[in-house]
Amino acid sequence: MSLLALEAVDKVFGGLHAVRAVSFAVEPGAIFGLIGPNGAGKTTIFNVVTGVYRPDGGRVLFDGQDVSGLGPTAIATLGVARTFQNIRLFRAMTVEENVMVAGHKLHKAGLWSAIVRNTAYAEDERALGTRARELLDVLGLAAQAGDVAGSLPYGSQRRLEIARALMLGPKILLLDEPAAGMNSREAVDLERQIRLLRDELGVTIVLVEHNMSVVMSVCDRIHVVDHGETIAEGAPAEIKVHPRVLAAYLGQEDAAHAEPEAHA
Amino acid sequence: MSAALGPRKPRWPLRAGVAALTIAALYAAGLGVQAGLIEYVQRILLIAGINVILAVGLNLINGTTGQFSIGHAGFMAVGAYTTAFVGVQIAPHVASLLGSGSVADAVTFNLALLVGAAFAGLAGLVVGLPSLRLKGDYLAIVTLGFGEIIRIVFNNAQFLGGATGYNGDSAAGLPTYTSFFWVFFWVIVVIGLIRNVTFSQTGRSLVAIREDEIAAEAMATPTTRLKVLAFTLSAATAGIAGGLFAHMQAGIRPEDFKFDKSIDMIVMIIVGGLGSISGAALGGIFVAVSLELMRDLQEYRLVLYALLLIVIMLVRPEGILGQRELSFGWLTRRFARKEDA
Fold it and tell me: How far off is chain A from B340, nearest CA to CA, in Å?
């Protein structure tokens, strides 16, 4: 059974059909790429999957359960974590605290324990801190644990978002343009880290990314959308030479059709 | 960090010792204040303490969680009326059990304060559940409205004296239970409570809601539940402040809890630094003292506050302390740095 499945999902904003009958399935353990030109609807698809938007048609199945109507908190609790295209860190908090916030599964003692500061509270804090530092270590941010998140360089902020998302202990992680703003060396590091997440932590990954060398090198399977519609799906090698994908990205098809008219 | 050194000693004997010492010191200080200071100064101290409770409580909502509430005087009113009414009603029963005297008074007073806090908290829950779906200005308007509604309800509650106020249905007025000891006892309890909530996973989640609510939701933070929790706690502490306020004087009137009172509280936390517990406490003291200094200018108070807020926004927008906390660690670091220089 696939871990995440979209069945003919539609999303409409007023007159704009942002997502039209998009279906795909992500198998457990996959690194699944979701690509398309700017404005193709990739982030909208993420927002539908994570419950920020409610789909106007079709359904989203996570782990066999229909999650289409659920809110973001409920979906995140089920094990769907994400990062954001426009970074959304808790900027005034430290790097470590940012990660700890997502540690609901390690947070067993209730508010009362915090108020009376008993052993259960201390154990909770220790468990949260330890796990947070482990994840920061995986993402190469251990040295910055005490820094204020908003003061980190851009690339580090992106990696911090991944660390924070992992703290949820997710089954699936949706990465929205993790390589944006990274130089090529940072991007290669990121590729290694993404593989590490899948191989070591067993997290299935869905990746929206414009950096094609990252997408082609880490993804097992790629789904391509344009103007809210699916135009192709396949292995990286197929996608690289797929005529409709090339057309969408390079405008070939348009050029071919438009040329005679232009001369007429 | 020496966590690996076998089972640790239980911490409760130490805590009990610290608590006993604090209470003893507070009691001694109370005696000293009563003997050494004129009544006028004593009263300013009591008001300052009550302000600290109000400010620290409101800061949990406005500073830590980032939800702008400007109707807190309403919750203070609920606490004040409930405490006064319950205190008057149960006093004879407590006296019949414990006899009359200062112990019976203290028991009556603190039971009534707790009931007042519970009712204020309940009012916070009732107001918070529907209104915390709103954000920013909209939430501010709704809380302002609720604050006024609560006041108008008391204005029309004849069994609580209506517009002329509640004095316990006796010519002598409400018993003056509120003393230096009890005000600062509750200051310590409330600061301790709010501090322990703030520096915990719950507190981190509240700050996360302030920083970015969408991201907080994506991290499985139950945002609505936490906002309502913070609002309820905040209202309950305002209720305690209200109860202390009620028993400081002969009677309470609905107009003691007008919109200006809510604005006073906003000024306290903005002056002190939104998001800082010690800043809120400083702001509470600041407002108590400045109100006394401006006593002759009562009518111009809101004008002066507006000017003050503008000056703060220009000169130090983060308030006196910003989001820092005054702590022994911070102070020692600060002075160590000074010596280096």
Answer: 24
Domain locations in chain A? Answer: 1-79+170-264, 90-169
Q: Which residue of A has its CA nearest to B201?
A: A101
Residue B220 in contact with partner chain A when CB distance is under 8 A: yes
Number of domains in chain B: 1
> Does A102 contact B219 at a Cβ distance shorter than 8 Å?
yes
Does residue B12 lie in a domain region? no
Q: How far is CA A231 from CA A6, A43, A247, in A?
A: 15, 17, 10
The complex scores an ipTM of: 0.88
C-beta atoms of A114 and B197 within 8 A:
yes
Put simply, the answer to whether A72 touches B201 (Cβ < 8 Å) is: no
By the CB < 8 Å criterion, does B171 face chain A?
Answer: no
Per the structure, the complete domain to which residue B61 belongs is given by 37-255
Spell out the CATH class of A1-79+170-264.
alpha beta
Over its length of 264 residues, how does chain A's per-residue pLDDT go in tens digits?
799 999 999 999 998 999 999 999 999 999 999 999 988 999 999 999 999 999 999 999 999 999 998 999 999 999 999 999 999 999 999 999 999 999 988 888 888 989 988 888 999 999 999 999 999 999 999 999 999 999 999 889 999 999 999 999 999 999 999 998 888 888 999 999 999 999 999 999 999 999 999 999 999 999 999 999 999 999 999 999 999 998 888 876 454 454 444 443
B99 inside domain: yes
Characterize the bridge pairing of strands A229-234 and A221-226.
antiparallel
Burial group, residue B6, by CB count within 10 angstroms (0-12, 13-18, 19+): exposed
Q: Does B22 touch chain A (CB under 8 A)?
A: no
Pick the closest to residue B60 from A139, A173, A111 (CA basis). Answer: A111
Q: Which of A73, A111, A124 has its CB closest to that of B220?
A: A73
